[in-house]
Amino acid sequence: MAEETKKSKDETQPEQDATATAAAEEAAATAAAADAAEEEEDFVEDPKFEVDYKGDCAYEVKVSIPPANRSQKSAEMIDELKKEAEVPGFRPGRAPRKLIEKKFGKIVKGEVDAKLVSAAFQRLIKVEDLRPLGMPEIDGLEDKKERADDEPLDFTFKFEVAPRVELGAYKGVSVERPVVKVADKDVKEAVDGLRSRYSVFETLKRGKAAEGDQVIIDFKGTVDGVEFAGGSANDYPYILGTKRFFPEFEAALLGSSTGADLTCTVTLPENTPNEELRGKKADFSIKVKEIKRRKLPELNDDFAKQAGFESVEDMKAKIAEQMREGASEQSNRIAEIRALEAVIKTCTFELPKSLLDEMAEDLYREQVSRLRQAGSSMADIEAREDELRKRAREEAEADVKQITVLNKIGETEDLEVTDDDFEQEVASIAQRVGVQSDAVTHYLEEGDRRSRTEGRLYRAKALALIMANAKVKDKEVKEAELKAQENANDE
């Protein structure tokens, strides 16, 4: 019966490796791997390409492979089969060539055509210096299943290539970095927060329930005199001020005494799981069984040691340093985002439609999932579909542009990720997660995890290069403003 609070993006999304970003990274890795494709076939006569660039990274290429290639490849394959094929009435390798051709001719032609098509694609991307996102769609091969030996092999490749960017100015961009000065009152609040985490609730013998108190209650809710699922509980511990219950419910509890019998009426929200109850009035009867008040530990050296410090002064100094480091990290993240956005504005992009479509759909589904978890009804979500899809498309485009521009800067500046860089990242992850480095290394060596990790390190180097050459101006702001700016970047 308690209202669900909307989870922040930070609570519901992994750090930066969201599905959409991973899709963009995978596309970049696929394109980068094009040069490492299978070994190029030799052609007797070179295939002819008629390249038609459709824009937005999309290509249609008409291909014609001269018949001499089919003839030679077929002959070579028949020769190999003749050595090994088992034909009734003949020892292996002794069957007449004509018999081999008759028995295996169609199979050979199919395999030869497939090899020539694949080889033509490898030749095309090498000659035209293209970085395809995946294997091409092939049109025209089915038009003529039975081709004469003297006919060329004609067909069309349709495919998209990796996002492209023409770099603008990426050195010397002007960036304002918001910075927060950690004051004594900020340290005091942090120390009080630490004391609160070590606090205990003690039974209040006299007095009335106030905000921050824990009340132990029994409650029962009815709609039209009938109890409903989730509307009742016994010995329920509720902390006043957390706003996890309805406002009317909490208002009834504030100022109450132990033993009090309370009532309140609330309107059930539109995200109530039971659709039949949405918007209806619910009557609650509440019994206050106990009131507990939070007791903070005394601020002395004994408490400091309990919290892991040497003394109160040591605790204050270390907390202050942690706060300064945290504020500095926030400031730098905001400055990096602003610098990258400034660079992107100076660049010209060509982006593949299919990649954006895929990423935008993934992001839209993530948004729907978050809203459902927060209690939004499908009717409400469907009413916002256009807005959500627009936001997903914009985020997908921003993610692709960021990855593309950083990769291009890295390529332009001849950046590279060394084994030392990778090992340092492994050590950092191991320390952060609290596991052995060997376990992290083993995990990252599986599948394409290492290449993705190196890709992120590569782009981090490119971003560091932007910041090293940026004109950064610090502006002192309040802590709330710093948090607001970082939250705005996460939306």
Description:
The chain is an alpha+beta fold and about 500 residues long. The chain has 3 domains: about 15-25 and about 170-180 and about 310-490, Trigger factor, C-terminal domain (Trigger factor, domain 2, Orthogonal Bundle); about 35-160, Trigger factor ribosome-binding domain (Alpha-Beta Plaits); about 200-295, Chitinase A, domain 3 (Roll), CATH 3.10.50. About 50% of the residues lie in helices and about 20% in strands. The chain contains 15 helices and 13 strands. The protein has helices at about 10, 20-30, 65-85, 95-125, 185-195, 245-255, 300-305, 310-345, 355-375, 380-385, 385-410, 420-435, 435-445, 450-470, 480-490, and strands at about 50-55, 60-65, 135-140, 155-160, 165, 175-180, 200-205, 215-225, 225-240, 260-265, 280-295, 350, 470-475. Strands 7, 8, 9, 10 and 11 form a 5-stranded antiparallel β-sheet that branches. The two termini are about 30 Å apart. Mean pLDDT is about 85; it is low at about 1-20 and about 35-40.
Helices and strands in order:
Layout: H1 9-12, H2 19-32, E1 48-55, E2 58-65, H3 67-84, H4 97-127, E3 137-139, E4 153-160, E5 164-166, E6 174-179, H5 184-197, E7 200-203, E8 214-223, E9 226-239, H6 247-253, E10 261-267, E11 281-295, H7 301-306, H8 312-345, E12 348-350, H9 353-373, H10 378-383, H11 385-412, H12 419-433, H13 437-444, H14 449-468, E13 471-476, H15 479-490
Parallel strand pairs: 6-13
Antiparallel strand pairs: 1-2, 2-4, 3-4, 5-12, 7-11, 8-9, 8-11, 10-11
